[in-house]
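Job type: complex structure
Entries:
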Amino acid sequence: MPRTGRPRGFNRDEAVVAAMLLFWEHGFESTSLAQLRAAMGGISPASFYAAFESKEGLFREVVQQYISTYGQVSESFCDTTMTSKAAIEQGLRRSARMQTERSHPQGCLLVLSAVNCSPEQKHIRDMLAKERERVRNWIKDCIERAVANGELPDSTDIHMLVTLFETFLQGISTQAQDGAPYEIIDAAITQLMSIWDTLSAS
Amino acid sequence: MPRTGRPRGFNRDEAVVAAMLLFWEHGFESTSLAQLRAAMGGISPASFYAAFESKEGLFREVVQQYISTYGQVSESFCDTTMTSKAAIEQGLRRSARMQTERSHPQGCLLVLSAVNCSPEQKHIRDMLAKERERVRNWIKDCIERAVANGELPDSTDIHMLVTLFETFLQGISTQAQDGAPYEIIDAAITQLMSIWDTLSAS
DNA sequence: GGACTTCTGGAACGATTATTATATAATTAA
DNA sequence: TTAATTATATAATAATCGTTCCAGAAGTCC
């Protein structure tokens, strides 16, 4: 927050949101600086680099912006105020709902926006992989809690079950991008969650 | 097959395979012509364009090459010599096995190689979406057959069940790219298929 | 009113993008 | 042996990539 100097001519927060929508739709490498600058209010290269340092710097901010807004749906996975089953189920349903909304690009930015990378920018892909791992660990903790408190039997294959739910969760991104409506994914989630009852009954 | 003229100085088939591996790993836009030409035996721009017309032309050939080799694993979904359940299960397991092999890039080329696209090349993404739809229709036909011959009850929500399996199938690509081993995905498939028995018993 | 600080417009940077032009080499058919 | 055909090497194309430079504009502080 500079107390002196010429004031910025554009709204930084709005610019980050505009950039997020572009990166979300086209991905990190396929979104050009010219596109970004145009969407951010037609700002000049100088303004861009003064505010964000680099394209990668902006992308890092965009990822945090996404996580703290749209991405919050996956925080259901680490919500311990409900049963583990309810947490997993709500996490899946809210993710499916958010990712299929038409008011923004479809799918999950953390899954989609750095799939295609040239070798010299593999660290961008790795960065998103780390963010996905955070979500995976939430799911893992959630299922471990279920075993610990008797929601699921001790014999439960935790690693397998985490992979089952995470694989489905990640598949939602492609489904959403291909235009699948929320209702059908929601129905599939209902069917998927029936596995939980099968497991808890045994 | 030209009967006259100077013979080609490189093996066209091998060049397509080399290009496939690059597109598979980095995606359509993130793979440059310079990289491609180097991997294809260090051929010149002139040789490249004489043989493939354009980068897009090469990519279309690559997609067909993939479908007729590695991609064949998904033809299990349209194999009517076994039960529908066995066809779905085998399609998933073979896809998981192939996509996690370390002898080539991980994941499915049809799912991964055109996720990030600039607007002017959206038709590339659409082309792959069409190929994915072919697989989806195999799954759909397979499940419809199951309902028709009594493997699954008439009350089965076909659209839901197709989405359930396809979403999981597409999620395998991200799992494989993130380094998930075959065994754990295979275990998840076993659990996923238990849904089939739940449905057929009702 | 300077001095200081920050942001902006605009031009330019070198590198890389996919693609094309030109001239020549290597083959077959007549 | 000449013509026709196809592939080659090399150079150059225009456009775009992310980024930097520079002079000036627009503020606050003393």
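Summary: Chain A has a mean pLDDT of 97. Chain A touches chain B through 46 residues (CB under 8 Å).
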